[in-house]
């Protein structure tokens, strides 16, 4: 049949046939489509679903078995199915209830990833690479690097043993990767734990007050200090707050897992930081220095640090005194490290005590410690007296800055 356009007077084919052809393509089921049908029958072979198309959908028995206890269907129920094969060699349309449910799980996983919500599951299996956690009809994977409390330095066998020990345990995770094409669902316990700790820290910050004392567990040691878990959130003891004496590394004072009592030194609500102190709960040795020492007294100490301008000497009980270069020898050595070394025990005379400035000055110029000056430094500078060198030590600004560094 030919029709004529009244404006162009050009004959065109009948559009009814084209419309029907287009609709036949539009309504053609495609692999991966999800449609809803009504269950017509259930038998030992599987299930037949009316999809409102020319052919019914066939669900195999093995597909239903994959659902386990969820395969609780009755004739007449509406059920979503995924088109696996629009037509097999026998002309049947193969559909899957299990894969349709998996699609719902993929959508749920994507929602959780986008919302960064924490999800609670249970560890079902483990291998050397990580943990297997069922997520609906999917298998989520937690890489070993995203498992909290996994000890460092384990060999492959020890790591597998540790992860296997988590089977059956509840676990809180965050979804960090969803890839349907590769069927990858990656979860992270570490990210979930971090978010929980952040929430705990906010709550803890609202409860804490500067000046109070709390108990906690040492959770980590770093070069700059120690972290203490105060109950789901960490505070930091800076290395300068570990003890009144100089500490080279926190391991000299603390160990991971140790229970400690700490002083809340400062709270930074905006930066969400908790500053702690260990030494503030111990007597300040400088408050006792007048009772223990006097000017002119001969004392013994251990050199804790040699610098260009002199050396720091550790004395009881936690006092660090300064031995200025001018009080090592006459004339003063250009490099005190030529004569002194860290860890060396020396005898010295106290030449000044300033408790309010936490300064104690020493001299070894007139005490035999077995030191030998380099030949080029042996000649004494003319006109220099002991009082001159003591005065230069007291007024030395660099020395004051260094002695107050703690």
Please explain how this structure is put together.
- With 406 residues, this protein is of the alpha+beta class.
- It has four domains: 106 residues, OB fold (Dihydrolipoamide Acetyltransferase, E2P) (Beta Barrel), CATH 2.40.50; 78 residues, Nucleic acid-binding proteins (OB fold (Dihydrolipoamide Acetyltransferase, E2P)), CATH 2.40.50.140; 73 residues, OB fold (Dihydrolipoamide Acetyltransferase, E2P); 119 residues, Beta Barrel (OB fold (Dihydrolipoamide Acetyltransferase, E2P)), CATH 2.40.50.
- The protein is 21% helix and 35% strand.
- A five-stranded mixed barrel has the order 3-4-5-7-6. A five-stranded mixed β-barrel has the order 14-15-16-18-17.
- A hairpin with a 4-residue loop joins strand 15 and strand 16.
- The radius of gyration is 39 Å and the shape is rod-shaped.
- 24% of the residues are buried.
